[in-house]
Amino acid sequence: MKRVMFLFVISFLLTACLFPPPPAPQTGSAPTTESQPEANDQSSQNQNQASTTSEAESESHSHSDAPHTSDVDLTRLEVGDGKYSTSPQVGYVFSCQTTFNGGGATGTGNWMNGDGTWNALMKAVVDGSVSWPHEFTISIQGDQRVFTGNGLPNHTTGTYPISPNDDAYAVDRNPNSISQQNVTVSLPDNPTVANQPSCVGGEIGIMLSGVPMFNAFDAQGLDAGAHEVQDSCDGHPQQSGVYHYHSLSDCATDTTTGHSALMGYAFDGFGIYGYYDSNGEEVTNEDLDECHGHTEVVEWDGQLVEMYHYHATHEFPYTVGCFKGTASVRTSGGQGQGQQGGQNQQGGQTGQGQQPPQEAIDACVGLLQGASCSVGNMTGTCMTPPNTSQLACVPAGGPPGP
């Protein structure tokens, strides 16, 4: 009998182990992955695979996430007075204009160190916080990137003309007022490097704020960033009311890690980016070529692309030293537009000279400064003659007579 009972117990235990009862049903819980339809399983696998591939490709071309770092001493920046050249040169402006006798700052600020350097941290700014009815759009039309706007910034500006009560007035008595413009700029949306660089005029590009970027000089051929006083967003107006920058605006928004964001476009279509490279390190002239750019992976139209681009620097010439691509025609209307006004920023102070002959002006309609032109049998270059505000065809021997 005991043996029979022993065998019964053993049989019961084996049955319980081999055939366990089904689990109790769960209420209110989400279905497990296994309970999903097979089609969803496949879809999920495909999505994961696409994400992994995208991440792998992105990682192989992405920028560093390193925080921005800088070795640039902002208290001892080299002054760029007279650093224009007749051919591309690192740290210089390859300028279409080499004769300067316009206006500019009237005094010397205490931020000038007296040894050929200046202290950006001590520089005065124009007082005021004036808001403007900003209008600016960017669109792709065929193979062109088209910019339209009214020339007024998306940020506040200082109060212009500079008030005698402003401490900036002791150094820079800019008498000009900011006025609305009619801006239309068409640039190639897929720019290419030209066979050789070309010289730049007064205006070199347009920024995402809708404000034009001028080259690094004032109308005297001096370092505008060092000598002239701008507002807290690094802008000021020239004689025709065109508000503009000579260097990257402190009001522009950049990334905090890795490569800088796009800040604007040069007139050859290439992008102008902020101060930092793909490693998050601030670039200097030593890192850039004669046009103030280099080739690196950047974000371009929402994609990571290895392409040529310019960089802003705290060092002169600040943005574009020459055009690496082919500069495009700028079509403009309204007072002040279409000029290479950076060379005549203070024309209101120095007074207007006689305008060039109309035929010389007509010869440069639709052309950029530095373009070849002709009037009758005369050949020359489109330039802004001293003490004038109009782009005109200038012969090799000098400005045309009245």
Summary of the model, kept short:
By secondary structure, this protein is of the alpha+beta class. Helix content is 13%, strand content 23%.
List its traits.
alpha+beta; 6-stranded mixed sheet; 13% helix; 23% strand; 2 domains; 402 residues; 4-stranded antiparallel sheet; 21 strands
Give me the Rg, rounded: 31 Å
Strand order in the largest sheet: 10-9-13-14-16-15
The strand count comes to 21
Secondary-structure-derived class: alpha+beta
Summarize model confidence as the mean pLDDT: 80
Task: Please tell me about this protein's structure.
13% of the residues lie in helices and 23% in strands. The strands form seven sheets. Strands 10-9-13-14-16-15 form a six-stranded mixed sheet, with no helix packed on it. With 402 residues, the chain is α+β, with helices and mostly antiparallel strands.
Ordered list of secondary-structure elements with their pairings:
Elements: H1 2-18, H2 38-61, E1 77-78, E2 84-85, E3 93-94, E4 117-118, E5 136-141, E6 144-149, E7 182-188, E8 193-198, E9 203-207, E10 212-214, H3 224-227, E11 235-237, E12 243-245, E13 262-266, E14 271-273, E15 293-300, E16 303-311, E17 323-325, E18 330-333, H4 347-350, H5 358-362, E19 372-375, E20 378-383, E21 392-395
